[in-house]
Structure formats: C-alpha cells, structure tokens
Amino acid sequence: MSHTLAAAGHGGTNTDLIAEETMFWILAVASVGAALAMILVRRAVHCALMLAVVMLSLATMYAMQGAPFLAFVQIIVYTGAVLMLFLFVLMLIGISSADSVVETIKGQRMAAALAAIGLFVLLALVIGHAAIGPAPPANADNGVNNLTGLATLIFTTYVFPFEVTGALLITAALGAMVLAHRERTSPKPSQRDLAARRVASGQLAPDPSPGVYALHDAADRPALLPDGSTSELSVSETLSPRDPSTEPRFVPLGEPVPVTAASDEQSGEREAIPGRADS
Amino acid sequence: MSPVHYVALSVILFVIGGVGVLVRRNAIVVFMCIELMLNACNLAFVAFARMHQNLDGQVIAFFVMVVAAAEVVVGLAILMAIFRARRSASVDDANLLKY
C-alpha cells in the first residue's frame, strides 16, 4: 500500500523544468492574490475561502517540490479539517460578522504598513545574503522514498518530538473541552416544567412556520395572517434584522400571481444594502 | 525553479499574514492570518528540504502542521468562550483584563 502511494507521489513530482516554472508562477500569483484579498475583504467567510485558495496552492507547490506526503496532509488536515473548524465557529458566531472599518487606534494602519515594509526589507536582505544553492531536481530520494524516509526520520531521529506532539494533541483536546464546556447554573427543566411554562406563556401551539400563505416558503418570509398582515413570530430572530423591508404581497384568490422576477429583484436589493453587517 | 523563488514567495505570504494580524480586528480573521504565516514557514521548510536533499525540513513542516492544528483548536475554543460572555468576536471588546 505504501509502495503504491510512494510511486504515485513520484509520478506527481516528476515534472520537467518548464512545466514547474509555469506552475510556480501561476500558483504564486494565485496565492499572493488570494492572501491579499484575505486581508482586504471584510467578511470573515470570504477570508476563509481565500485562505482555502492559498492552502491549495501551497499543497500543489509541496507536490511539485518532492513532498507528496506533505501535500496530501496539507489538503486533508488544513483545507479539510482546520478550515472546516474555522467555518464551524464562523457559523456559530454569526455568518454576517464583519470587521468595522473605523480605526480604534489612531494611525494603526499606517504603523502596520510601516512594520510590514520593515519586516519585508529585513527578510529580503536575509534571503539576499543567504547562500541558497540551485535546486536539484526532485529525484528518487525525495519522490519514491518520501513516505518511507519521513517515517524513518519521525520514528528514529525525531521520535521524542513526535511523542511530545502526541502529548500536545491530547492537551489541546482536553483544553478545548474544558473551554467549550458550560456548567449548568440552574437545574435542567423537566417535561412538567416545560409544559407549565408553555401554558403560562399563553401560547400553547408552536410558532407559525415562515412562508405560510405567503408567495414563498423561504425561511425569511414571514407567514401571512388571515387579514393579510405579516406575523413577526414566524421568522427567526437572526433573520429578521437582515431585511426589515420584506413585505410578502398578499394576493387575493382569483388574481394572477405576480411572477417571481420582482421578488428576485427585491432580494437582490436586499443583498446590496450596505452597513447592515457591522458587528 | 530555484529555492530562492519559493523562499521569496514564503516571505511575501508571511508579511501579508503579519499585516492581517496587525490590521484585522475580527478574532477569527486574525487566526486565519496566523495560519497563513505558519503555511508560509512550511513552504520555506519544504524548499530548504529540497535544496539540501534530505527530509528533515519536511519533518519539521509536518510538526508545524500538528502544532498549528492544536493551536487552532484551543484558540477557537477560547474564542467561543469569549463570544459566549461578550457576544462579540472583535479583539477590541475583550478588554476586561486591562483595568
């Protein structure tokens, strides 16, 4: 099994020079552009997508440089697991959470730009002075024997860091559980308590579902009451601040139902309302 | 391609990640920028491993990935705890320890 994987890795890295150069420039432009977009776009979800582009580009570069194992780990662990974790937390916190653009510290952006230029010049000088030799082709040592070579190194030279890594992972899992755990401050309500609470609230039935009698049954369409007015109860509280302008048109029986183009246009307008995403 | 190109690209990505950490105020985006910096380091490690014709750089990059995964788990858990208490994911709002 490992032999076939290593052979596949070798096949993936055996590119000739021109192909590698072309690939490098395409991937470099893509990753730098995506990284710039990542720090420029305001929405956190778009940042996550841009980060995915950067990670996939880097995974391809690992494969080009004779590291097929790292390429797959990059895709599976980073793009698959870490980025999904980011997206999970984003969904928990709120999809529309975006940065506000006001500076709380005066001149922070200018200072950040200066620091970035300074860091870039420093690192560029270091690279310019370092003796970085020419690249040998990604040969058999790096290709076919990549998996076996990595395994040998991890379990011989680096076996102690490897064990420490295991301890770190266990600690991280425990820490995440402790941090995410919430102590219950009040006793758990029983079914009897819930029933009493429901009766005391005056509403025995569940809330009306969205879209009842409206033209759409989308989750952000409030239900229509018999008199044609909308029921605020039927829309989730997290959805209602998005579009205060939603007014489902009540169509009496016998009249032609308007085509949905108008409502599509309306939803397009809703998308374009600026400033509603400030957190 | 010379490793210089790859190292230069990793420097550029690292600096962009650093700017993101300094400028952005949504804590999740700050975390993503830290991930970007770690990825840039990994790219340099892999380039140097190829230059020196041994696999030590790749092993180190592998360890960096593991540590980054652990860091993300704990960091996001802290973020969730803060969000539960403050109803905000902005790094400006978590300032109770200042006074």
Strand content of chain B: under 5%
Q: Share of helix among residues of chain B?
A: over 70%
Poorly predicted regions of chain B are none
The count of strands of chain B amounts to 0
Order of helices and strands of chain B: HHH
Number of strands of chain A: 2
Return the structural class of chain B. mainly alpha
How would you describe what is shown here?
The complex is a heterodimer of chains A (279) and B (99). A two-stranded antiparallel sheet of chain A has the order 1-2. In chain A, β1 and β2 (230-231) form a beta hairpin. Chain A is built from 9 helices and 2 strands, in the order ααααααααββα. In chain A, α2 (17-40) runs antiparallel to α3 (44-64). Chain A is an all-alpha fold and 279 residues long. In chain A, 57% of the residues lie in helices and 1% in strands. Chain B starts with a helix and ends in a 13-residue tail after the last helix. Chain B contains 3 helices and no strands. At the A-B interface, α2, α3, α4, α5 and α6 of A face α1, α2 and α3 of B.
